[in-house]
Fold:
Amino acid sequence: MSETRLEKYKKYRQSINEFKSINNEPESIKERNNSIVSDKMNTTSTLPLEEVLGKIDDQEVDAAPRRVLTRKLITIIAVAFAGLVLVAGIIIFAICAFGGK
Structure:
């Protein structure tokens, strides 16, 4: 029968502890001490809340954002305008041709 997950990782942890106890050379001890995080090294890059909120309040809010005219938007507007002109022309032609008097 196969061993359970708990037994497997218990053996794994024991093997790691054995490796750590064997590896007590001066170089490994020095490297372990360098990897320990101290208060001096443990700094964060977060900003204070008051500073962040102060910057948000300083920014001016535009009443209406400007719309950017892209090539696609201009094409859509031009096609719609041409369609309206075409429909108006057909209506005017029909009135004149079929006697709208």
Q: What stands out?
A: The mean pLDDT is 77. The CA atoms of residues 76 and 82 lie 10 Å apart.
